[in-house]
Amino acid sequence: MMDGRALYILLISLVFANADSNITMIANDFVFTFINLYTEGKSGFILLVLVSNNNNRTANVTVDSPYPSFNNITVSVAPYSILKIPITPESIQAQYLGNMTTARGQVTVEDKGVRLQSDLPVSVYAHAEVSDGQNADSFLVLPAVHLGTEYVAVTSTDPNAPNMIAVVAYQDNTQISLPTQGVTLNALQVASVTVKTAVSCSIISGNKPFGVISGCTCGTVDGICGYEAVMSFPVDDWGTQFAAIPLMFLTMNYYQVIANTDNTVVSVGEGTTIVTLNAGEYQRFQIGAALVTSNYPIQLIQIGQNTGEKGNNTGGPFFLQLPSTDKMSNTNVLFQPTGFFEYKGVHLVFFLRIVTNLAGTGTIQLYHIHMEMKKAVGLSAHLT
């Protein structure tokens, strides 16, 4: 939710390219879904898919879904550009049942998966936004080749928050175990569950690769409510070292850490322990700029929050999944702001954040961007 004259949206292209970790977010095939952007008293939503083509040739892209009201899309994405593709109708969002007391915790199966294919490798973001521009979040879509069979859900830590978990099948006859029951899905079917309780660290497993999108329709941080959504990494792709940088105008930022191994010790800086977790446990904590490390792989989520007076009282909760430092990009990255560009006649301000895990980074070149110089926070003293 937004309060004030401007909205600061962070959009980071986590295009991983590392020979050792063998993970790249640039690919030809993607499947995903949208968890419902339900907000009390709100109506009208914008759903977008952003396709980034970093090739020197035009990428031909198709978007399809088994949802009966969805019209399949065929578009071309010009070289070195990003195309925003509207996804309609808005009812393609996974159904929200949180306002139906008898349905809380019930698994709903729907034909609401979305598949995007391209003849050239591209990266993909999904974006959902209330049509008045006050509530939004984006998430990086994992390529189908990196989908896994075991995940741990990420939701709001607020025990009364309307949390959602949605899984999307990539193949027919995918058997999935959700927190409340098991379900068998065919390709592009979606199973979702809505609960008004904290369900972070719920284990979701299946017999074939599938995707998990989880979060909260109205997560609360410091009294501000906002839409939080993330497409989780499979457990096999978690990491043990992360560069944690507060968002613009903040000196401290909230994070949520999730463990899948007993006696997981999470530390900052030179080894100061934040928390020790067992499998199935999570913790929200607040720190400044620091290197976060662990003795076993973890999932680390940065949480958007109100920026205070310096940011015109703007900002709100959202989820940003941090890549471990071994999965940071070493190639070109394209980015573009999403959704609305102004609110009540005032132009919104967008920021690009560049984080490195090296003390000597060489030269970073920015093209076709208007920049306003702001104070930057460095981590070179910690990242060696």
From TrEMBL:
Signal peptide, first to last residue: 1-19
Keywords tagged on the record: Signal
InterPro entries linked to this entry: IgGFc-bd_N
DNA damage listed as a keyword: no
Domain IgGFc-binding protein N-terminal intervals: 137-342
Pfam families: IgGFc_binding
Source superkingdom: Eukaryota
Key word Signal present: yes
Identification of the protein by name: IgGFc-binding protein N-terminal domain-containing protein
Species: Plectus sambesii
Lineage: Eukaryota, Metazoa, Ecdysozoa, Nematoda, Chromadorea
